[in-house]
Every structure is written in structure tokens, then in C-alpha cells.
Sequence to fold (188 residues):
Amino acid sequence: MLAVCEAVKVYLDVPGLAFVIGCDRSALAPNGLLRDPSPAASAFMERVFQTSYRIPVADQQDVREYIGRCARAVGIDRRLDERLTSLLAERSAGNPRRIKRLVNGFVLEATLNPMWEDFPPEAVVRTLLLQYFYADFYRMVAGGGGPGAGDVIAEFRTYQQVRRLREGAALPAPVEPEPARSPRNAPH
Fold:
């Protein structure tokens, strides 16, 4: 961090030029990048960061409004209901870059990929969340995991059951598939 700041100061020291450096101060000190800086390092940082402005952390309502603005900007606001907005807000952890990435991904998938024509918007969003935040799992499910990988979904359901058992929760009764009905005996 110090080396980058020093390089900016030394190589780009031009009269009238100011730099705006966005950073999370908690990542710098005391347990961050500048752990126990020497007095010289502290003095250097004071010269580099001449002014400090703290941006307040966005609350859930602010994040939801940002998602709404992003969705309106790309024309998908009518496709994002309250439930999907909540899901995006929760899974993006309020990170604006993640929100933009998810909204843009949704636009591309839902509007350009004909595979999603028969699926609701929620399926697209949930798939994107898997793809972005659980990339390895998504690749196994989408790509089949390669030869000899087995049934990834069945393995995942088994994992969920084992985890519930470990946590002391009662397992739900297994659901038996219904027998296939012929058109003659289907309910009317």
C-alpha cells in the first residue's frame, strides 16, 4: 500500500493534479495493511491522505433503491419484484459492483439467451447467484462435472440431509415421485 502511494506521489506529482483514493480505512489499520506502521510510515500516510471523507455504509433500504435505479437504467425494473430485489440485496452484500454485475448479467441472460424464455425471472437470478458466488458448484451442475462425476444434485441433497442431521434438525419425509399418468386417467 505504501509503495503504491509513494509511486503515485513521486511519478505523478504534477501541479494542480489531485488524486482521490477510495479505500476502506479499517483495511488499512490497526490490523489491516498498515499493521503497526513506523513513525515514518505514519507521517508519509498523513502527507498522502491530506483530506479524508467518510461515506456512510448503505442500509438495506439504500441498497434496494440502488438496485431499483440500476434496474430502471437498463429497462428491467418491471421484471424485478420485491422478492427478487430482496434476494439481490442480500446476496450482493450491498456491494455496488456486485449489484451492477448481477443486474447486467440478468439483462444479458434474460433478454439475449433464448434458453430462459420459458423460465420466470427468479430462476435467472438464482442461476446467476449460483454462477457468481458458487462458481465451482455451478460448473459441476451445468457441465455435469465430467465423466464419472455422478449426480451432482443428488449428492448435494444428500449433503443437505446430512447437515440437517448434524445440526439436530428432523429430516423431512422423502417425497416419492408420482407415477406417470396417461391422458385417460389424468384429473380433469
Remarks:
- Residues 96-112 form the longest helix (17 residues).
- Residues 163 and 169 are 9 Å apart (CA to CA).
- DSSP finds nine helices and no strands in the chain.
- Confidence is low (pLDDT under 50) at residues 182-188.
